[in-house]
Amino acid sequence: MAIEGMLELLAGCAMREGATESQIASLERWAAAELPSPYLHLLRETNGLEGFVMDNSYLILWPAEDVPKINEGYLVNEFAPGLILIGSNGSDTAYGFDPRRRSGEIMEVPFIGMSLDEVRVAGEDLEDFLRRIGSEQE
Length: 138
Known about the structure:
Layout: H1 3-9, E1 13-15, H2 21-31, H3 37-45, E2 49-53, E3 57-61, H4 67-73, H5 76-79, E4 84-88, E5 93-97, E6 106-110, E7 120-123, H6 126-135
C-alpha cells in the first residue's frame, strides 16, 4: 500500500512530525532486526500517532525513540522474547512485529498475561492490519 493510502485510513488520528533518519536508524540498531518497510515509511511521515482508525478502533503508535524504553518497561524480552511492540489500542492490547515470522505481519498480544503463546496475527501487513481494525465494530 502506498503511504497515501495508509494516511487516509489514519485520517482520524493526531499525528506527530515525521521521524528523522537518525531516530529511525537508532530504532533499527536497537531492534537488531529488519523492520517492515511500510512501518518505516509511516514513521517518516508521522513519528507516532493516536486516534481512531476509520472511526472504529483506537490506535496508538509510539514514537520511534520511545519504542525501546516502552518495550523494556513492559519486559517484553522476558515475557515475549523476540517480539517488538510498536503501539497499542490504548487499553489491554499491544501491537508489534515478530522478526522471526513472515516479514511484515502485525502481531497482537495482551499486556496482561503477555507471552509468546498469546501472540496472534492482527494483519498480514500494515495495510491489512489498518483495514481490519478500521472495520471492527465496537
